Structures are given as C-alpha cells and as structure tokens.
What does this fold into?
Amino acid sequence: MADLAIEAGRGRGSSAPRSRPRRVALTRVLPLVPAVALLLLFLAGPIVYSLYGSLTNTALTGYKAANPDFIGLDNYANLFSSPEFWKSVWLTVLFVGASAVIGQNVLGMLLALLMRSSVRPLRSIVGGLVVTAWVLPEIVAAFALYAFFSTDGTLNSMLGWIGLDGTTWLITFPMFAVIMANIWRGTAFSMMVYNAALSEVPPEITEAAEIDGAGTVQRFFRITLPMIRRSISTNLMLTTLQTLGVFTLIWVMTGGGPGTASSTLPVLAYQQAFKFSQVGYGTAIATVTLAVGAIFSIVYIKALKPEVD
Amino acid sequence: MRLKAAVAASGVLALATLTACSGGDGGADGDSASGASTVTVAYQKTTAFHQLDDMLQVAKTQFEDANPDVTIELQPIEAEQDQYFTKLALMNGSPETAPDVIYEDTFQIRSDAAAGYLLPIDDYLADWEDWDQFFENAKQAGLGDDGKTYGVSMGTDTRGIYFNKTIFEQAGLPTDWQPESWDDILDAARTVKEKVPDVIPLNIYAGKAAGEATTMQGFEMLLYGTEDTLYDTDSSKWVLGSEGFTDSLGFLDTVYGEGLAPSLDIALDAAVGNRVSTELLPQGKLAMAVDGSWMPGGWISGENAWPEWEQTMGMAKMPTQDGGGPGFTSMSGGWTLAVGAHAEDPQAAFDFITTALNKENTFKYDTENSQIAVRKDVAEDPEYIAYNPSFEFFSALVDVTHFRPATPDYSQISSNIQVAAEAMATQQQSPEDAAAAYDAAVTGIVGDDNTTD
It folds into this structure.
C-alpha cells in the first residue's frame, strides 16, 4: 500500500524538472542519485522479486520450500481460471468503489463543505473527532471496529436500547461492515485534503458568480469543483491505492470470511501464501493487485489530467 | 562548486546508509561471537495453553544451573495454533531468525523436515539413555520422509465427546450417554435444542480459522468412522471422491444447517477452541463438544481452573458412522520438541530437549496438560494414572485410534479440508460441491499420479 502511494507520488513529480535547461538539470539530478538508488533497491527491487516469485511454486513448508521450481506462467493460468479469484476481484472493486471512491470521497467533501459554513467550536470538535479515526493505528482501529460490529458489540447494544434486535453483522453482512469501517477510518484524510483545497478557492470568483445569479448548487458544480479538480484527482488516487491495499482491517474484522465472502485480493493473497503455504501462488495474486493499482493510477491521471491547467 | 557540494552530500548520505545497515548486522552477530552460547526456544502460549510455558521455565532454570555457559532464551509465540504455524514457518525462513529448539506438531515434521527447517537428531539420540523409555509409536511420530528422526515426542492425545451431564438431565437424556452411531449424536443434539433451547447443543469444529482443530477434531473424527479414508497407505495415494468424505461433510452440513452448532460468529473465530474450553463448557452454555483429551488440563489448574468439571462433564466415545467396524473411533496426534536446522550449537539445543523431556519434566507436562504419556516410566507411574480421572477413558481410546497421513503434503491438504468444512458451516456449498472442490485442490497439490478414486 505505502509502496504504491510512494510510487504514484514519484511518477507525478518526475515530469517537473524536464522543462528546465539542460546544464542546470545535471547538477540538479546528481544529488538525487542516492535517493534514486535507494528507491530502485527498496521499491523496484521487491517488485521485480515478487514478479520472479510469482513464476515459481515456492511453498512455505515441504520440499518446495527448499527447492522451488520455475513454472513459468502456471500460477497466473491457475489464477485466471479460478472462480475464487474472480469473486475476489469483484469484492475488491466493490470495496474500493464503495468505501474509497464513493464513501470517503463524497463524505469527506461533504464534511469539508459543512465545516466551512459552520461555527468555530463545532468545526473544531467535529474535525477533531473525525481525525481521531485517522490517527489511530490501523490495528487499533480494526479492533475497535470489530468490537463495534461483533455480535455482542456496541452497535447491537445500541440497537437494543431503542428496542431493535441486532444481527450478526460480521457474519451476515461482512462486506457492509468492512466498507463502513473503512469509510469511518479514511474519511478524515479526504476531509483534510478538501478542506485545504476549498480554502484555496478565491472568494472573489465565488462572489462574482453569486452576483451573476448562480445558486449554491450551481456555484459548487460550476465554480468550486472545476477549481479543485487537481486535489480531487490526487485524493481519489491516494484513497484508491490505500484502500486497495487494506488488509489488517478486513483480516481482524472478518478474516476474509465467512467462507470467502469478504476475501479481497490482499486477503486472498495472504491466505494462499500463509494458510495454504503456496507462497508462489500468493505472490502471483499480490502482483496482480499491484497491476490493478497501476491501472487505477493511469486511469485517474489520464481522466483528470491534474497537470494541465 | 555546486557540483562538488552535491557529490559530497550524496557521498555522505550513502555512507550514512551503509553504516546504518552494517550497524544492525553487527548487533545481531555480537551474541554468537562471544564464548557463551544461547539456545532459543520457540513455542506456543495462549491463556488456555500455559502448561508448556510453565514446564519450559522450570527446564530453563534446571538447564542453566547445570550448564552456566549456555543461556536458554524462551520465545513464546502468543497465537492460536494456525497463526503459530505461520509464524514459525516465517521464522524458519531465514537462518538469522530460525529458533534452535522448536515446539513442533507431529503432522508438521515431515513437511518441515523436507523444507530443511529441522535437523536430524539420530546421532544425538543414540547417546541418550532415556530414549529407550519412549514407546515405539512415539518414536515413529518423529520420523521424517527420509527415515531420520527429527523430533522427541512429548505426549500423545486422543479425542472423544465431552457432554454436560447437568444439561443432559434437563433434556431427559441419560447421564451415562454413549452414542452408537452418528444419528444417535444428532438425536441427542436435537433433543437438547428442543428441551433446553438456550444452550448450544453440539460443537464440532468447522471453521478455517480454527485450523488443524477443524481437520482433526472435526472432519477426521467423522471420516475415519466411515468405511473410507483420507490416504491409502499401501499405494501412497490420496483418496478422492469417496462416499465417506461426502457423508462426513453431510454430517457437518446437518449440524450447522439445523442450528445444532454454535452460531458462526463463534464457530468461525480463530479463538473458538479457547472459548469452548474456558467459556462455553464451564459456563454450561454448550451441551456436547467433540474435543481432545488435553482439555481437562486447563480445568485442573491455572487461571481457568474449574474443579467442578469432574462432576459435571461426562465423556463418550465417538461412534463410527453406523456403529460398524470396531464401533468407535478416535484420532491421535501429539507434539514434539525438535532441533532447528540452523542451530548454532545443536548439541546444546538437544541437551536442553533432554532436560525438558526427562522423566520429571515429562511427568509435570503430561499431567498438567492432560497428555497421554509416551514414556514408559511416566505412563506406568501410579501417581500419573491417579492424577486425572479422564486419563483412563482417553487412554482406552488408543485401541481404536487413527493417525493422520504422514506425508509432507498433509498440512496443505488439511487446509483444503478446512475450506470444505467451513463451506458446510456457512452453508455456501453442498457437500458434493465442496468435496469436488477438495478433489480439485488435492489434485493441484500432489498431481494426478498421487490420487486414487
């Protein structure tokens, strides 16, 4: 997850120095050499290694742990013909779409807008509460949410107070539970990004639009959104890539179950590698996840063209 | 000038990075370079399973007193069994982290020996006079595929059905209950569900998270009571598509489908075994549990002590499917202490095992953890037999017990049995579909040549 985010950041930044004159470029680039070397070693290295690993039948234990064979693309062939994998792809898309693209983004924007128009103490309190969820380490947040959704957890107790019967949320609606959990956890990030972006929108333009007779809704969609388009695309990309790699939250809450009902790609990769001991096969799934992340990044960059203005 | 500065800066950076890296290495090597050696011991510890930790603490003191130049470093891994195996495999992945002495399940020995994680200890055993005290089948349990010995048995176990006599009385069932077939178990469970609706009638493990408990205490207790088996020892082939396999899944399907089992939030939890022994049974929330002979160990002493278990709990043998064959069945496993392949001082590591598993410490462990002794001198000790009233019952099951297939592939195949069992618990697949998925997975692991219909 972090790898992807850093990768993406690097990709976006690298086009900047290209426009500068050549002689300056050389002296500017030299100090970057150690950094680039480290990135190649610690970022590109593992990616290449995982590509190689996915072409072997390495196992966690047994003969194949000591002497793995090179088996070409067999892992990928098995993967693409496995219904479990396609189910997992669908769950991943659902998870990313519902919790990151829709949930965190829309809710974050909504919170940012509401907070701009609210009074100060309320703004600080709400902001503080939302950011708390973001500040919590993932494992702590995951346990808190497990306690919230579990059968004798907070949610069911609260439903009991108003006379409603709870349900086994993590068993009956596992995807709903983990999606809500991820929205809860990640909204603060979008909120902060949009808060910053909204404060950069010059008030004169909004006022001019207001004088021209644009309503609140029109002002938002015609003026504000286009002006913060770059922040939106950056935020979409970051939240998507972060959510694509979410493992701890799901693992702690549902363990990918019941059955495979909440096994997204990272959970499936972990299960294959460490539960079924098929490290090579698990690595193939991880590599596919990496590719999915790369595709998402390209789509966002192309679709929203953040650099062109 | 600017260029020079830049080069200098990058040089400094690179140097800093290098020294940071080598600093870490130096620290790690420091321990081994000095004269005294350290033996690391990796083992499992949970709130319900503290007996091994207790025994190893004692052994550590004894060993360090006798060998002042060796330090025993205990590394308890606080995890449920499934995660314990994963963590252990990862530790074994690098010589830097590999432990010297490993608490190793007998079913993992062949695969871990094949993976090169374990050290053959035949040469050391030859000089250990106590080795003659071990029963032949316990010696067999420590063998690898190559016929060499890799582990010293700590004890063995059998499995049966625990039932709560108080609940049985309320349901109008006999307190000396002994089912003769699977249907008898289902009938009793249905009676409990009807007469005592607020307790869970029967626990039989069926979740992936429970790991080997689901395979062994759950599925295999059923399968080995049918006319079929998992692995044909004569031809060394895995049996696929058997009727017994589908029937066993069918039993789980019925138990979970009719609501005779714990709800899924309990059944699919990794800590389900812990909850059964420390919560559900002692609090009278569960009427019957198919489980292992070690359970009373946690009730006799420790923080989950439950002295009333002797009056409350009854024990019944697990019947075969329709009472055929010997009428009853059981499964046996057991754990060993093994020496890691990367041990820097294998002799010291092995010597620690001989201390930990001498008569006195084996007695302590086997009694406190309710193990069936595999050392003659412990098994015949009248104090051992008198220690725990369940010993007689569970030792008698040795006559009808079965062992898991001893092959390096077993642990991977066991995981696929758990997938099939969980599909029954969640009702996501029919027994036939789950069996077919299992067949495909096994073929994928061992290849067509190693399976038979």
In short: Residues 83-116 of chain A form the longest helix (34 residues). The radius of gyration of chain A is 23 Å.
